[in-house]
Write a structure and sequence with these properties.
Layout (H helix, E strand, L loop, with lengths): L1 H39 L4 E6 L8 E4 L4 E5 L5 E5 L10 E3 L4 E3 L6 E2 L5 E3 L8 E2 L1 E4 L2 E5 L18
Antiparallel strand pairs: 1-11, 2-3, 3-4, 4-9, 5-6, 6-7, 7-8, 10-11
The protein binds FE2/S2 (inorganic) cluster.
Length: 157
Amino acid sequence: MDFIKKITRRSFIKKAIFTLVSLELIYVLTNLLKKGNEAKAPENLFNAGEVDLFENGQVYPFSTERFYLSRLKDGGFLALSTKCTHLGCTIQFKTKEDKFQCPCHASAFNKHGDVLAPPAIRALDLFPVSIVDNKVLVDTANPVKRNKYDRSQITYA
Ligand code: FES
């Protein structure tokens, strides 16, 4: 009888250990799968809105995200950083003059972000734009430095 109790206890402990290890494995695998999905999800992309909200040739401020969304005359999109490339002041879009101006030392930039007036010598930084399900998504976590505007920087719907 004592022998049976020992076997039962051993068997119980083995099953308990097996169960714990199995649960741990399931937990680890579940977390790995979650992390894999998170990496694919565009968490860092800011949803600026539906493509049709933005008129061609217009500039739209997203102050809290620190960029201007410039929809060019041909329908392409550029997301321009609000940070002046001279010393980092916040630029402003002047609708009447149709250009960006820096209040600190008067640098000016066009709708592509190219320098119109110094002392800035480099185009405004870009935030990568992607269009998914007709939504304009902006990667505000990864500004791209550039010297000049280039057509390859435009994103089309
Ligand atoms: S910081 Fe913009 S012109 Fe100097």
